[in-house]
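User: I'm putting together notes for a lab meeting next week and I want to include a structural view of one of the chains we've been expressing. I don't have a solved structure, so I'd like a prediction I can at least talk through. The sequence is below, exactly as it appears in our construct file.
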Amino acid sequence: MRRHWAMVVLAALSVWGVLGGCGGTGELGSAEASSPGGLARPVIGITSAYYPDRDQVRLPSAYAEAIGEAGGTPVILPVIEDGALIDEYVRRLDGLVLSGGDDVPPAAYGEAPHATTRTLSPRRHGFEAAMVRAWLGTGKPILGVCRGLQQINVVRGGTLVQDIPTQVGGGVVHRRPPGGGDATHAVTLEPGTRLRALLGRERLEVNSSHHQAAKDVGAGLRVAARSGDGVIEALEFTDGRFGLLVQWHPERMADARHRQAIYGAFVRACRAAPAAVPAGAAAR
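Assistant: Thanks for the context. Below is the predicted structure for the 284-residue chain, given as structure tokens.
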């Protein structure tokens, strides 16, 4: 899997030419519309990081590669502030991935920032919060990766540990210093969870590059995995929808079976996603 950063600067309306998944209304050529197995490729949006000083959005290419490898059509979502376009994303996309990045603003869950907190841009936070609120009203699949888990937990009324080393302790290394690459540690999967059923194991070693984590769990979510220090490493929804949230980066795992277990299950769920909903039907 390549790990280089792919810079993408998109005009919002340019996306519609490729949207045509299970719930979409566009059309794709036959080479693009089917996965290698001959099944329709669901169209999956991936949120991106926004850099206001350069007016650019960016996304590590591993996310799109993992979606493509699993049989989906990845679409990188620019950060926009147009409610009508958010409605169109929600209506046309079959699945949504919330990617990693800087910290969720603590004001979103009623706290002052810790000294180590480095918040993402208000524009990105506003876009993603609106997108998640609208998306969850559709019941369509969602995958949260690292900060994506934290964002969804906050939207659902949860809170965050703002700095694991100072607020939990250093028994488990969750993030190495800049330039040190990913840390690795073991996680234990909770019995009876979707995640444990997908991975078929009680414990596994994962990569780790975060200093924050879920603290109070949001409404409709449950803990699916923890690390040895008790830090929440995965959440999932309790209402039966495919909503899987993990603190590690499965798209960066060298083990292709692990990537396929998570991204493959997500893409399959997106292929069977509910029909498109009318624009504006999902409340933000």
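A couple of points you could mention at the meeting. The longest helix spans residues 256-271. The domain at 5-271 is CATH 3.40.50.880 (Rossmann fold).

User: Perfect, that's what I needed.
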